[in-house]
Specification:
- This protein has 444 residues and is mainly beta.
- Helix content is 11%, strand content 37%.
- The longest helix has 15 residues.
Length: 444
């Protein structure tokens, strides 16, 4: 695979420091590139995964099937399968030959009891592993085809809390997993035996990359540190980062001797693994970076986060002024002087909801016409069972409660992220804005 990747060099020099590509209606949670470098896939809050041709990054097709935000996507080593997973707790397997179809049918794997946030294939493609916030690691055998994977699946428990990431050892018989408990654990798969913790961090480990051949483990933590250690004895090689700014993304490219990290404030750090020097350290976004991929040419990096678009940055061509934080404000953090209610909508609601009748597909339904509407009744949107069974009618009082008590109290079991607004005036201003802006509108 490395030889193929290295052959995909782009001859033409880039004209711009960065390019943006839009196809989603919500934040982008993950990126993955096919083994031959011909396809890039982005997974989004808008319940979809977009397939792009690479290296040009041209939209090819959109995969709709998940019933909630899509958190992760991975290709099998031979490129014949694409796996996606999300907040609905399900894994969807897409065969390569259906990715360009108008309405492709995935194979659905169920078993997790919480959102799935990461996937990994073994090097030989015989196993798929999944990391879930239900505290388990899922193992899905693929030897008899993805259609039979659910029948022989098993779930490993051991982490204290959510599991954030998984990676197979090269031999395929062992697995690494990173969790909220601050540990990176090492497992023997034949009997699901926990062997040891190669990292005991004390803070949640959100991302990791293990390279046994180079005796290296890299990981990012919720305390803001980007860490690289020797795998054999845990001796520190490099430790950098911003205090208490969680590290949310990592990408290891052994073919180009680079590791890239991304954090919750948009910082990207690219490190040369030959001498541990910093190749680039710059601000690539005005918010969290949830995923990044070093492109097969080794000259550019694609980042994804709270924006609807993905951005490709040139690693070696852009001038120093581009190292400053990019300026344009997004809808989530408006910089213009606007009324408080509109500001609260931008901050609390606009990531998942629009106000227009034919609003873009996002993680939540459009809010147009929601005042006076019974929860869970907007045609064309797939609601959680909690809202389908609810007798709530959205209005000033119920929306106010939604943000004062929280969705977990007002609509227990809903897919809506848990958030509360402590300031009563902020809630009043938000409700007032929604009532005017939507002409009978509200949340959900």
């Amino acid at each position: 695979m490395s030889a193929i990747l290295l052959c995909l060099a782009v001859v033409a020099a880039p004209v711009h420091a960065f390019d943006r590509y839009t196809a989603h209606g919500g934040p982008v949670r993950d990126l993955t590139i096919s083994p031959d470098g011909s396809m890039l896939v982005s997974a989004s809050f808008d319940y979809s995964a977009v397939v792009w041709t690479a290296p040009q990054i041209t939209e090819k097709s959109t995969l709709y099937a998940h019933e909630a935000a899509v958190n992760t996507a991975r290709f099998s080593p031979d490129g014949k399968l694409l796996a996606t997973a999300g907040d609905d707790g399900k894994i969807y397997i897409w065969k390569k030959n259906v990715l360009a179809d108008d309405d492709p049918e995935p194979i659905i794997l169920s078993g997790h009891k919480g959102k799935v946030v990461n996937l990994a294939f073994s090097d030989d493609g015989s196993l798929l592993a999944s990391a879930s916030w239900d505290g388990s690691i899922g193992l899905w055998p693929l030897d008899n085809g993805p259609e039979a994977a659910a029948e022989d699946s098993q779930f490993i428990l051991g982490h204290d809390g959510p599991v954030n990431m998984v990676q197979f050892a090269p031999n395929g018989t062992h697995l690494y997993s990173a969790g909220y408990d601050g540990q990176i654990r090492y497992w023997k798969l034949s009997n699901a035996e926990y062997l040891r913790s190669v990292v005991r961090n004390g803070w949640s480990v959100s991302v990791m990359a293990v390279d046994e051949q180079s005796d290296m483990i890299a990981f990012g933590s919720s305390d803001g540190t980007m860490n690289i250690e020797r795998l054999s004895d845990g001796k520190g090689i490099l430790r950098i980062g911003d205090e208490r700014v969680p590290v949310l993304a990592i990408y290891h490219s052994p073919w180009h001797n680079m590791i890239a990290f991304g954090n919750a404030k948009g910082r990207v750090v690219v490190i040369n693994t030959d001498d541990w020097s910093i190749v680039r350290d710059f601000n690539a976004a005005n918010g969290p970076i949830w995923s990044l991929v070093i492109m097969p040419d080794g000259q550019s990096i694609v980042v994804a986060g709270l924006d609807d678009f993905i951005t490709r940055w040139e690693l070696f061509e852009f001038p120093p002024e581009f190292l400053e934080r990019p300026g344009p404000a997004r809808r989530f953090h408006p910089s213009a002087e606007i009324a408080n209610g509109e500001k609260q909508f931008a901050r609390k609601c606009s990531v998942c909801h629009t106000l227009s009748p034919d609003g873009k597909r996002r993680a939540g339904p459009t809010l147009f016409g929601v005042f006076g509407r019974m929860a869970g009744t907007l045609e064309g949107y797939t609601y959680s069972k909690a809202l389908l069974d609810s007798d709530i009618i959205w209005g000033e009082e119920t929306i106010n409660r939604l943000f004062s008590e929280g969705p977990d109290i007002v609509t227990p079991g809903t897919k809506m992220p848990i958030q509360r607004m402590k300031n009563e005036q902020d809630r009043i201003d938000l409700v007032t804005f929604l009532k005017m802006a939507t002409k009978e509108t509200t949340v959900e």
